[in-house]
Amino acid sequence: MTTRESHPTPPFFDQLNLDEGTVLALKKPLYWTSFDVVKKLRSILSVKKVGHAGTLDPLATGLLLVCTGKKTKIIAHYQDLEKVYTGEMILGKTTPSIDLETDFDSETPYEHVTESAIYQLASTFLGYTSQIPPAYSAIKSRGERAYKKARKGQKMILAPRQVFIRSFVVASISLPSIKFEVTCGKGTYIRSLVHDFGKQLGVGAYLNALCRTRIGSFKLEDAYDVAALFKPYN
Asked: Are strands 61-68 and 23-28 parallel, antiparallel or unpaired?
């Protein structure tokens, strides 16, 4: 793939091989859900088989792979690929959703936390680790998406899962802000990582920003911008 600086024009969609299927690398904007992207493509392409290979939360941006046609049969392959995220966590405050979808529900002094403690803690998350998915997530709980139950105020118990974190790099520290980059395997929730990180520091934390920059060999800089791609059809 090559980087496209200008807005794609409508004929772009005519070039897609809908019979054999296509894998599209897209830049998901802030506030869009992954299903919003799928729904829009399904409408534009007039094709039923469209699916994404890995959910991005509405408050996350970055790389989203969308498969069409026969390529939807191998979505699991793309879901299994290694992923890279960049993000920012804020210490000292928490929210039920672990991001800014919900209001703050606690505040704890963080001034005593040292940079050395942060760097040392980051190294303990490497390798295989047990992680509990966020209550506000797309995981199904008794047939219903967990986030739907969470928004209704219903309590649920989500089973922990084993995930793999290849690298957890602390890019910069300006308390209460910590910027980071994570390389991880399938099923890793960065919000859960942030929750666990803040909990172990004893001050809590929430995810302030998140961007997925790579999925396997697919890179964000090579992806089509969703807002520009769909502009001719709005």
From this structure: antiparallel
CA angle 134, 63, 12 (to 5 degrees): 140
Q: In whole angstroms, what is the distance from residue 61 CA to residue 29 CA? A: 5
Distance CA 92, CA 106 (A): 8
Alpha-carbon distances, residue 74 vs 56, 103, 149 (angstroms)? 19, 38, 30
Domains and CATH numbers, the chain: 11-80+219-233 (3.30.2350.10), 83-215 (3.30.2350.10)
Q: Which residues contact 175 (CB under 8 A, 6 or more apart)?
A: 91, 110, 111, 113
57 tagged catalytic = yes
Tokens 């809590």 correspond to 204
Structure tokens at 74: 């191998």
Residue 88: partners with Cβ closer than 8 Å, 6 or more residues away: 177, 178, 179, 180, 207, 208, 209, 210
pLDDT per residue as tens digits for the range 153-191: 667 777 789 999 999 999 999 999 999 999 999 999 999
What is the number of residues in the chain? Answer: 234
The pair of structure tokens assigned to 57 is 């939360």
Residue 16 reports pLDDT greater than 80? no
Catalytic-labelled residue, pool 14, 19, 36, 57: 57
Q: Which two tokens stand for residue 135?
A: 């209550």
